[in-house]
Every structure is written in structure tokens, then in C-alpha cells.
Write a sequence for this structure.
């Protein structure tokens, strides 16, 4: 029979007093997900200070049948790092594994701990002449391990790809406590499966990422950010293709924001102002960068690119950032979309993707369909036009009871949105993972063969179902205590 106190005493012996706590004041802030949709209970909060400590802890959990819920910055959007309600799961904080190693300038790489915060990594690279080319609005709390576990993308994915493209090597503790050590990257390696790719995007259900070797790229010597108003999404798509042709690899970001969403941001940030004098149906945020060799001519090339877009009728108005402060101000408007919409009231958010070339058609079709089916709602769609990732938010009618609406109409709306995504051959999760939030929808809409293969992999790597149970594609735990 499982003895919680005996287990906790042994865990404390492994981790030390600093590494394990049941203090409600210390544990409770980490029991609710960032969106406030899920709240669980935990046996205790464990915070190992090294990979060796974590490996010993995982072996102990395997011996006692204790489920483990790994957590980074707790900034996920799908409840993937929140424990269940049994109170028998161990909440595992990886925030102490935050070491940022020395920069390898010749190899253009760096090895960091899973608990390293993305913003801290960016700051550590500032004097190196190199950068880690992934950023997002939650960079002040998101950890490298969490980004890997959800295969995060961010605003620079157009040029540099998601975490799958940026992780060169990986270290992880497996379900039986063994350490998978593949931190040293090889450009070519044909010794079978690329096992690190199994762990990237697996949401802690196959192994617990403890460190990673990340790809770095040359620092930006100059950048120009363009805010352009366009008459339609179709024009925005044509503008993207135009910019890709004109700027090539220098094009690093291309975002779309509707006028209604920009209005919400401006209302939420009283000291901010609209980049353009007049409203437009859609706004695009375009970032073009250059290294030292090309920095001197960058602005001229961007002006020519936008000028030819005007001539082609793709742009109604545009402004170029005059300096770095203005460039940051443009991006701040984009980064504040999520908090501005939260301030408007309850909504159901959908992180979805469709084939890149179909994104404008999807938004123009799905938005009115949802608004017609659910009178009083309003669809706000924005995101990364270059990779098909749509943040498709459905804002509740005014005056509704938020929690009640989300559990009733909100669930039905999400089901309809996901049906539309499936009909357009898209994905119900583009960059925030499945977690608890979309687990049942993945089961309902996912390809049966793919789901069966995922369960077989889970059963092979975590046969007792102890790693992040109830998330992604659950394996019914045998002998687990939750």
C-alpha cells in the first residue's frame, strides 16, 4: 500500500529541504494554469537542483507509483502543466535547472537548463554577437523546457522555424530514471531514430527535459519594422508573398491584426497610439532584419519593397520604424493583444493552424459562420500569416456570466471551431500544445492511426503512465496512484 509520508521522507532525502515542500503558500500559486481554467492539487512541490537529483527522484516515483507533473514557467495555454484533482501527483518544478552555459561562438550554439527563462537567455547573449531566434509575448516567464515540451513557435518562426528546428541536442530523464544524454549535436547522424524529436512537443508525457543545446544565429545589426494597413486578408496574403520575394531571408516576421483587435489594445493601453492615422480593415506587422554587411542598405531596400507594394495596390498606408524604440512600440501593440482581449471579458481562445495558403479564406469563412451561429459573439482572428497559425478568439456576448458561458456555449463553440479546422485539413493546436484543454477534442478528431501510434510510443517509454498523466494522449495507468 502506498505510504505518502514514507515517500515524502525519501524524496526529501534525495532533494534536501530546499527541494521539496508541502507549504500551501508556496505550492498553491502553481496549482492553477495561466488562463485560470484548471486548478488541481498536488502531493507536494519538488524542485530538484540537478539532473542527478531529478533522476533519483523519478526512480523513487517509479518505485512508489507516484505520478509526476512537470512544470516550467506555468505560462502554458492548455493546462498541460497543471496537476489533476486527486492530490496524489507530485508537481515537479524545473525552475532551479536554470543554468545558462558559455556561448560557443564557433559552433553558434549554447547549452542551457530546462528552467532557464527565455528573456534571461536573450539577455545573456546580448554581448556575444549571436542570438536565439525565438521570442514571444510571455518571454519573461516561459522556460526553455516548456518551449521544448510544447514545440513553441513565436513571432520569428517564418524565418527560423519552431523549437524543433532550433534544438540541436537534448538531455532528459526518462520514466524509469535513466538519463537520455544527447546534448552534443552532430550535423549528420544516421544511427537510427532521432529520439530527441520524440521528446520535443510531447508535453512531458514521454520524458522530462532537463537541458538543451540550442541553435544560435548572428545578431541583428539593423532592423526595420513596418506597420501597414491593408484592405483585406487576401491583400495581406499577397503582401506577404511580395515581401518574401523582395526581402528573401531578411524577412523575419509577418503578423496580421484586425482593426477591432487593435482598438482593444489601444483602449487597454491609454498611453499608446495607433501607428497609422486612419483605421484599416487589417493591419500587418512586418519585420525585416540585416547583419552588419547588409545593415547600411536595409532601410533603402525596405522602402523600395513597401513602395512597390503601394504601386501594386497591396497597401493602403504604411509607416516604417524610425528607430529601435519605435520598432519595440509596434511589437508591443502586438504583444498586448492577449491581455487586452482578456480585459474585454470572457472568451474562448483557439490556437489553430490551417494550410498557409488557405489562412485568409478560413478566417473570412469561419468568422462569420461562428458569429451567425452564436448571436452576440465576436470573432477576433490574428496571428502569424506566414505559417498558417491563427489565434481564433470568440468573445462572449456582453453581460454573460463568464465561467458559466465558457462551460456551456463556450465548449460548444470550440467544438464547432475545431470541426471547421478539421474540415479545412488543419490542426486544433498550432503552438500551445494539447494538455488537458484539447485532449478530448484530439481524441474525437485525430487520425485513429496516428493516435494509436502515439499511445504505443507512450506505452513503450512510460508503461506505468506516470509522466504527466491525463495530458495529450493519456495511457491508462496501471498501478498509478492517480
Amino acid at each position: 500500500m502506498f505510504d505518502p509520508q514514507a515517500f515524502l521522507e525519501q524524496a526529501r532525502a534525495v532533494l534536501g529541504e530546499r527541494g521539496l515542500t508541502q507549504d500551501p503558500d508556496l505550492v498553491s500559486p502553481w496549482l492553477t494554469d495561466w488562463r485560470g481554467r484548471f486548478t488541481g492539487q498536488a502531493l507536494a512541490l519538488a524542485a530538484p537542483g540537478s539532473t542527478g537529483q531529478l533522476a533519483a527522484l523519478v526512480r523513487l516515483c517509479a518505485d512508489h507509483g507516484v505520478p509526476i507533473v512537470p512544470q516550467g514557467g506555468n505560462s502554458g495555454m492548455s493546462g498541460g502543466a497543471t496537476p489533476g484533482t486527486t492530490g496524489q501527483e507530485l508537481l515537479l518544478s524545473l525552475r532551479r535547472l536554470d543554468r545558462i552555459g558559455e556561448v560557443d561562438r564557433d559552433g553558434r550554439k549554447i547549452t542551457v537548463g530546462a528552467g532557464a527563462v527565455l528573456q534571461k537567455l536573450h539577455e545573456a547573449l546580448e554581448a556575444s554577437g549571436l542570438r536565439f531566434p525565438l521570442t514571444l509575448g510571455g518571454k519573461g516567464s516561459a522556460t526553455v523546457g516548456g518551449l521544448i515540451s510544447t514545440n513553441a513557435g513565436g513571432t520569428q518562426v517564418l524565418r527560423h522555424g519552431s523549437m524543433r528546428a532550433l534544438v540541436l541536442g537534448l538531455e532528459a530523464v526518462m520514466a524509469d530514471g535513466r538519463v537520455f544524454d544527447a546534448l552534443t549535436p552532430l550535423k549528420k547522424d544516421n544511427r537510427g531514430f532521432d529520439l530527441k524529436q520524440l521528446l520535443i512537443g510531447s508535453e512531458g508525457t514521454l520524458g522530462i527535459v532537463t537541458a538543451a543545446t540550442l541553435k544560435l544565429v548572428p545578431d541583428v545589426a539593423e532592423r526595420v519594422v513596418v506597420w501597414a494597413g491593408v484592405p483585406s486578408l487576401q491583400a495581406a496574403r499577397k503582401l506577404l508573398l511580395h515581401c518574401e520575394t523582395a526581402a528573401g531571408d531578411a524577412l523575419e516576421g509577418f503578423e496580421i491584426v484586425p482593426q477591432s483587435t487593435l482598438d482593444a489594445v489601444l483602449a487597454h493601453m491609454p498611453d499608446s497610439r495607433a501607428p497609422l492615422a486612419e483605421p484599416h480593415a487589417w493591419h500587418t506587422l512586418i519585420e525585416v532584419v540585416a547583419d552588419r554587411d547588409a545593415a547600411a542598405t536595409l532601410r533603402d531596400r525596405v522602402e523600395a519593397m513597401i513602395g512597390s507594394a503601394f504601386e501594386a495596390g497591396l497597401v493602403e498606408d504604411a509607416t516604417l520604424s524610425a528607430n529601435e524604440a519605435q520598432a519595440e512600440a509596434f511589437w508591443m501593440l502586438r504583444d498586448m493583444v492577449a491581455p487586452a482581449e482578456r480585459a474585454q471579458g470572457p472568451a474562448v481562445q483557439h490556437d489553430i493552424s490551417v494550410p498557409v495558403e488557405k489562412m485568409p479564406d478560413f478566417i473570412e469563412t469561419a468568422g462569420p459562420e461562428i458569429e451567425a451561429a452564436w448571436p452576440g459573439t465576436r470573432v477576433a482572428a490574428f496571428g502569424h500569416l506566414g505559417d498558417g497559425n491563427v489565434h481564433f478568439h470568440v468573445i462572449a456576448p456582453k453581460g454573460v456570466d463568464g465561467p458559466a458561458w465558457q462551460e456551456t456555449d463556450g465548449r460548444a463553440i470550440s467544438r464547432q471551431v475545431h470541426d471547421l479546422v478539421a474540415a479545412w485539413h488543419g490542426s486544433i493546436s498550432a503552438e500551445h500544445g494539447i494538455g488537458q484543454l484539447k485532449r478530448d477534442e484530439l481524441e474525437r478528431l485525430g487520425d485513429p492511426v496516428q493516435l494509436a501510434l502515439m499511445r504505443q510510443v507512450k506505452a513503450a517509454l512510460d508503461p506505468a503512465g506516470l509522466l504527466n498523466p491525463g495530458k495529450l494522449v493519456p495511457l491508462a495507468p496501471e498501478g498509478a496512484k492517480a
